[in-house]
Amino acid sequence: MALAPPKGKQKAKPQRPWFPTQGSSYNASSYQSGAIPTFGAAVSGQGPSTQVNGAVGSSTGEGPGNQWETRFAWRVDAIAAWTYLLGPISALVILILETTNDYVRFHAYQSGLAISPLFLIHIILGLSRAPLWLRWIWFVGEYLFIFYMAWRAWHDANVGGLARYRLPWIGDLADAWVGEE
């Protein structure tokens, strides 16, 4: 049987608010702070928007956002590299979860488009009873390519200032898909 302390001696539990007391860095009317999104509102939520050559921006001169920001505040270089490491699986997960950073989404598209056919050929070689030496050469080449692309995405984010390394044809297609979003 647990004994409760007398009423005057009870410890008060600290009450934590559901939401922090400091305000958001976004405008109170922006969708990031819970408001209903409206058409014609500025991308940054800071004022009236302008459209120049098909690009929407703020009239205050600010762009649509920081190119280093991600949806979950993850590191851009690590996410871009991770999109290659598990092939189409990691690319799909990142395309679903990361909706704000074009650099990461570009590498997720490029990873899915480049590595999916490689995995398919890997499976076909295994099922077709190809010679073991051929399967090993393919396996080593496939993973060297994957690790090189992961390193390249990480390196370009750290040293290259988010320069996109484009594979022939696939990189252009991935870039076009990111641009259409």
From TrEMBL:
Residue ranges of the TM segments: 79-97, 109-127, 133-151
Membrane topology: Multi-pass membrane protein
Protein's organism: Calocera viscosa (strain TUFC12733)
Keyword Phosphoprotein: no
A GO CC annotation given for this chain: membrane
Annotated region described as Disordered, given as residue ranges: 1-27
Source species, domain of life: Eukaryota
The protein's name: Uncharacterized protein
Compartments reported by the entry: Membrane
